[in-house]
Design brief:
single chain, 500 residues, alpha/beta, four-stranded parallel sheet, 46% helix
């Protein structure tokens, strides 16, 4: 009987215990979730449970000192909690900085873009603190835009904080110090920076690179550094919100009426003067372009044989030549073509043939109001950023010249899933065009030859061409960052290997 009387209290005690345990578990989950939200908002380090995670560089997020191993239970728990929390700002990488790196980017938008990716990678490799880049304001292509006028500074700093510390300006104690200024050797490996540049940074504390274009090798770098270059380019370098908003508006307007292609028609006055390419220009125009070339002493090449350069495939196609190529490739008359370029040399009359054959020509001015464009019109780099956004979103991208814009956009489109970019073989094209104009080829023969010429030149998966000792002749990293294209590659055929 006594046994019967004692049973209900025991059951009640067990019930109370279970209730207390359930309350504690629920409270722990609520507190844990709140802590994750607070950490994300304030940019604080995440709780230890989530600390063990893969880094972009292949090791731990703490600069290689943390172990990458963790138990399956811990990883599973971290994944489960991660589903409850919003995406967090990357955990800050803690490291002893060896000094400060200032960079002054030279050239146009895409030359500077690639340089920034290289310099973040260099700063990460040498454990430096990087100051937000300065942009070119002195060369012919410069405009008064600062980094924050073109790119989202906060996103740039925060998205890379698990790799490198980036600050907006030097600490006060260095503000009056004249930094040690130099130009790194072009196409250098990471070993050059470790052996020759790092000792200079340790000695001077602050080093400024006065030129940053093509200062890091295309090939032969560790995989973790190549992947970091991609991470900076395709994630950290987002355009400023005002540029992104207008770019989305332009793309939306183009998409409403179907597919479209982007023609990067590099036929501006500065390009023709710099390259010396005057095919199709009048004597007066040729003289004007020559005067312009001589007016800029840092354009080193002065005496240029335009026709010889054209036959070597080193000149941009003229609008008329481009029209013939588009027709030969089979683009129908009603193709909607967005022209990505600055002001075409010779004005609208130079586009007459293109507009006659392809009347659906679209420019920025047709997609945006005058009020929307006005803040950008005196900023060539910001205008180029709008063209960049439309170019990577297009169904087909066709550059008439193999410049920085063409290369960087091609690489970005590969990264997005090998979207079609037609890499025009200008050397063979001008031969075919001359034969057509001399009536040595019929139109059908010309069209067939052009199509056959560009089979396999549509951004199919392939490896970069590497030529030891000749970095200028090999393929550019940012046109084909094949180390970073694993996911995109699976959507297409198996990777093709190109024999050198």
């Amino acid at each position: 009987m006594a046994r019967h009387k004692s049973s209900p209290p025991a059951i009640r005690r067990r019930g109370v215990g279970m209730l207390r345990w359930a309350v504690r578990v629920a409270s722990s989950i609520v507190l844990w979730t709140a802590l994750l939200h607070l950490s994300s908002l304030l940019g604080l380090p995440r709780p230890p449970l989530l600390a063990a995670r893969p880094s972009c560089l292949g090791g731990g997020g703490g600069g290689g000192s943390n172990s990458s191993a963790s138990s399956a239970v811990t990883v599973a728990a971290a994944d489960e909690v991660g589903r409850l929390a919003p995406p967090a700002v990357p955990r800050r990488r803690v490291y002893k900085s060896n000094g400060y790196l200032l960079i002054s980017c030279n050239g146009g938008l895409n030359q500077m873009r690639a340089a920034i990716c290289d310099m973040v990678t260099v700063a990460r490799y040498m454990n430096l603190t990087m100051v937000v880049p300065e942009l070119d304001k002195q060369s012919f292509w410069a405009d008064p835009s600062d980094f924050g006028d073109i790119f989202d500074v906060n996103h740039f700093i925060n998205s890379l904080q698990d790799e490198v510390k980036i600050i907006r300006e030097l600490p006060q104690k260095f503000s009056r110090k004249v930094p040690f200024s130099m130009q790194p050797i072009s196409w250098s490996s990471e070993k050059y920076y470790l052996r020759q540049i790092l000792p200079l940074v340790r000695k001077h504390k602050v080093v400024r690179f006065s030129r940053t274009d093509s200062r890091l090798a295309n090939n032969g770098l560790p995989l973790k550094l190549q992947k970091l270059r991609c991470r900076v380019n395709y994630n950290a370098l987002q355009f400023a919100p005002s540029i992104e908003a207008l770019g989305k508006k332009m793309i939306s307007a183009l998409r409403k009426t179907g597919s479209f292609i982007v023609l990067h028609l590099r036929y501006e006055m500065d390009m023709l003067a710099f390259s010396g390419c005057t095919h199709g220009c009048s004597d007066e125009e040729t003289a004007e372009l020559t005067r312009m070339r001589y007016a800029y002493p840092w354009w080193k090449e002065k005496e240029i044989d335009s026709e010889k350069k054209r036959l070597e495939g080193l000149c941009p196609l003229t609008p008329g030549e481009t029209t013939l190529v588009l027709k030969a490739l089979g683009f129908p008359r009603d193709t909607r073509i967005y022209i990505a370029s600055g002001e075409i040399y010779g004005g609208e009359k130079r586009l007459t043939e293109l507009k006659t054959e392809f009347p659906n020509i679209i420019r920025k001015e047709m997609l945006l109001s005058a009020d929307e464009l006005r803040p950008f019109q005196k900023h060539s780099t910001q205008m180029a950023a709008l063209d960049y956004l439309v170019s990577i979103a297009s169904d087909v991208f066709i550059p008439s010249n193999d410049g920085n814009m063409a290369k960087v956009v091609e690489g970005h489109r590969r990264f997005m899933g090998f979207h079609k970019t037609i890499q025009l073989d200008r050397k063979k094209l001008v031969e075919l065009i001359d034969l057509l104009e001399d009536q040595e080829l019929s139109w059908d023969e010309f069209s067939t030859a052009v199509k056959e010429l560009h089979e396999g030149r549509m951004s199919e998966p392939t490896r970069r061409k590497a030529i030891a000792g000749q970095p200028k002749e090999e393929d550019y990293f940012y046109a084909n960052p094949h180390e970073c294209l694993g996911v995109a590659r699976k959507r297409r055929e198996k990777l093709k290997h190109t024999e050198i």
